[in-house]
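TOKENISED FOLD:
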Amino acid sequence: MVLLRCQVHMEMAHIEEDEDRLEPAMQHLQKAMLLDSLGLYRDKLTMALNRLHLCTMLYQAPERAEDKAIMAIEQAKKAIPKDSVRKKRALLVNAGLALAPDTFQIVLDSENEAKVSMGKSRGRFTYLFAKARHHMISVDKAAGHLRRLGNENDKERIQIWAELAKVARRQGVWDVCRAASRFCLLYDNVKVKKLVRPKKGKKKKGGDSQAQDAWGQSEVTLQRQVSPTLLRKFAEVGFISAEKSLLNLAPKVLEATVQLLRSEGVELNNHPHPPEDLSQHSAGYTVESPEDSAQWITYQTWIESLSQSAMHSWLRSAEIGQEIQEGWIVQNAVVYVLNHNHHLIVAGRQKELVDTLDHLLSIVKATGHSGDPTMLVMLCNALARGLILNWIPAQVPEKSKRPMRSNLFHIPLDSVASSEVRTAVEVCEFVLSLTDRTVHKEAVPTSARQQLIATWVKAKQLLQQQIGPRLGMDEQSPNEDVNSVTRVLVALEMYSSNGLGLMDFTVPPLAQLVKMASECSWSDPLVELQTLMRLTHFAHAAHDYEVTMLCSQKAIQMGIRYLRMCSPVETELVAEMLSTTACIQGRSIMENLKGRKQLRLVAAKAFIESAQFGGIARNSALVMLAVRHYWNTWLPFLSSAANRKKAKNVIQRIISIINKTEAKKQGKGKVLTLHQWPTADFHSGGMTEGHFLPGAEDDLTLRAALYGLLFHCHADHGDWEGGLKVLDEAVRVLPRTAHRL
């Protein structure tokens, strides 16, 4: 009860301070100190009381350097939003100079390009080399400050540096934020890390031995002084330091005066690209290769060291979270690593992150996932994919594609590959088993679980391990009531993995799988729609007309309903799936015509819908694919003026869709695709296979043919003015190639 009263007074002090009532706040802190009989909050209360006392000293200059820094930070906190960054920066710089008058300005100038000295030489890489060298030399001065300072007011200085970093970050003064973070983390790097790594070797005799014993005792004493509060500060500043290093490498718009490496445009863990040589040279001059330039190698090493520093800061923060058993710190470290390396994950470069992700997983296993199983699933999926991607056979070239028989004598993986893939399976099964037992409020989104299932099935195939009739769920969950959605997703992945020259899975009948999917209770409509689309594809591949029509109709009806309520990003994804489904539906109808003209009209309608959905998705490839199939469908009837008249409005609509889609093409995808390897699925190139009739061989030929057909539609009725407008538009829109003739 006494401790509770202490905590209440601390909270009351915060409330009073927020209302700018400093005297009552100080009284609450003094009462809290009297109630803190165990000394749990002694340091925190002492610093808070001193800080408020300094805030009341309007016309007095404190003597202690730490007090000067605190006062400057408090003044910076009171800056109003309309104050300039220069004014805020001046106060924050004063705080840093008060704490480290000998080196703070030097470290701060490490990012000042005006301080970079290039010398007399003016080579291709001279400036980059000079900038990198200037930064490295300046930053190295920080360690000397701590050696000269010794152990003076360690705990207080750590918290002041941390506060300075956080205030600078909040106010957008990034160079001060980075410099303050660097000084704060010196206490962790130089002192704490030495304490947890005792030296190995034989002890010296006599006085040296006694001195070593005394040093060892002081190490133990100092290590005990490193409280969880200080370690927590190190973790928080580690996040800030790494993030700020990264934000300067990413091409984002940040309001700041100086941005480290912004002009280089390098992302985290990426290599810089050498600049173009724009200088004029005499004939016979040989351009210097970057690999042979010591200056470029120095600059490249500096860029890589910044990435390594950011990654190290996040890993160190995770280790601190494990040390003080605070899972939220570990969780934040994992989120930072996954988010800021997303470009590597999307590009299939998880292999480069395997060591980091494996270390993080071991920490998460020790501390728990803090009620966030989704984070754990994403971590394990990235790690597992990093372990297997290098061992998946490359995709067959487009020209040589043909149905492949399963290789019953597929060469097994070598020992190294087998070990990595087996580890990937263990990682997937660990998290699948764990998330099977989570309560409803901690349930993993189906889309995240689907990614992991795809990875697990592919790893099982590489190891040539069949998945049982219960679709692997008996291997991960001790419960008989297995998740029906998971079983459907596993079966779909097995279908996607077959026919690629590797071991084929024994899959359940397609009709049974469709029945299982219809009986599921889907929590994610996007995954349900994708499942119906994939079932449509596999039914069409199996020439099962009835199942193809059943699944495609259900998917299109559901997708149209969902289009009306989803976000812009989801709209494009849904439209892509609807375009693919409608195209497959039309192809299936055409393959089962049996001379029925009415069905040809139904197929043409499906292809038109496919083109419309492709336009909504801003996906030119899907639009042109649907239009090709529409052309094939209608070409036999286009010799008749009556049929051309019927097709006129549709042709105008199709041309409009093509032109609009070309004008605003889809941006580069930042969403992790379900498969990062060849599959038998719809997104593996199979949709483009097939014979196309004359006029639809390539995109430009098809567009020119459509304009020609529309001109004939006008000419049939003597509308030469309308026909000329069509030709004018074609000349204006089509690129300058032979097609315009």
Remarks:
- The chain has a mean pLDDT of 81.
- Residues 5 and 112 are 50 Å apart (CA to CA).
